[in-house]
Specification:
mainly beta, 4% helix
Amino acid sequence: MAFKTFVSEEVLASADVNTYLMKQAVIVCTSGTRPGSPNEGMTIYETDTDTYRGYDGAAWQEIFMLNPPRCHITRTSTQSIPDGVQTTVTWQSSSYNYRNMWSSGSNPSRITVPAGMGGLYHCAATLEYNNSTPGGGDGTRTVALLLNGSIVGRSIQQNTGTGQATRVFYVREIVASPGDYFEIAAYQNSGVSLPINVVQSTPFFQVRRVGPA
């Protein structure tokens, strides 16, 4: 479709509106009311997803999402992790929580992908285990990322029983669908229960959408 330059006092015909103006402007719609017969290069803005999309001749491709889902949550008090038992971390406070991905009232362990916001998500978490005294010793300290209750990856640190705190960090990017939820699980086998420290911006769990799948 060619580009048309309108001149002063030119009569604007319906064909001009349908062919040039509508198809060369950013059309405001929803994800359910996109243009039915788009031309390649058309651009839309979806009000329900806050997303700009362009038509590549076969499908609507995401260009940019305004205010994408992102969430950063922490604990304000220690949580005890039993010896030899994988334990889901519950979170108590949010630094930011765009698109209401987390709730302190229902399922406070979960960060949930909002409706219509599936895509590639960046996930990161840090836990610091207190030292293993009294009564503790060697063993592992882990941070595991769960998607819908199943482990999709973990980081492991060995502790030599020196009495020093052990900080474990995990990060990855993963494709998730609307309604999927992320959690962090802790595990340690020092021989005694160990608390997760609240110190130096830890523990934290962060999830943010970085783009389409």
